[in-house]
Amino acid sequence: MNETVHTILLTGGIGSGKSCVRGVFESLGIPCYDADAAVKSFYKDHGDGPCLLPQIEALVGRSLRGEDGQLDRKAFAGIIFKDKNLLRRVEEMVFPALTQDFISWRKKMASEGHRTVVLESATALDKPNLEKVWDFCLWVDAPVEIRIERVMQRDHCSREEVLRRLELQSPMESHLDAIDRIIHNSGTPEELKRSIKQSCKIVF
Predict the structure, then answer these.
(1) What's the CA gap between 195 and 182, in Å, rounded?
(2) Residue 128 belongs to a domain with what CATH number?
(3) CB neighbours (10 Å) of residue 45?
């Protein structure tokens, strides 16, 4: 637990609408750290965080770069999501780096006077290599068919590809002991905002 800055973990299954929830927190003036965006920056030669791409290429044994010299995300996903052992080894590099990057960011937010921050991560509860750096866990949920449709539209991928990604995440039921509050995100934006504000009252 962090005694200086109260940290909310915003998590949930792929396609549940975590980004929408994050947007509400941001509208309330609460800084939010997007773990997925941070990890993507680690794969860039000139990202804000550490560059892990050369080490990952060495692990995979081939170049993962496109014509622009940056990571070919589709090729990378096609490799690691088909090999659980390789995925585990990549995560052993990525998540400790993510932990340290988040802690540095949180210290910066504290220096600016913020006393509450949000860590958005779809997979935090599944990843032993990500240190528990939060005080309160908020899980976003939605019916699986809605989630599948959202991801297909967002990522322009097939239903089969989405289902493979869903299989990599454990269900909400396996994390009930770690979850402090569940937000159901299948209604209107107004309903979502009301639910978040109710959760905020409980958190604070």
Answers:
(1) 9
(2) 3.40.50.300
(3) 11
Residue at 1 is within a domain: no
What value does the mean pLDDT of the chain take?
87
The domain tally of the chain equals 1
Structural domain harbouring 147: 6-203
Strand ranges (DSSP E) for the chain? 6-12, 32-34, 116-120, 136-141, 181-184
pLDDT tens digits, one per residue of 67-96: 888 888 888 888 887 888 888 888 899 999
Answer whether residue 45 is part of any domain. Answer: yes
Element (H, E) at 190: helix 189-203
Model confidence pLDDT, tens digit, residues 141-168: 999 999 999 999 999 999 999 998 888 7
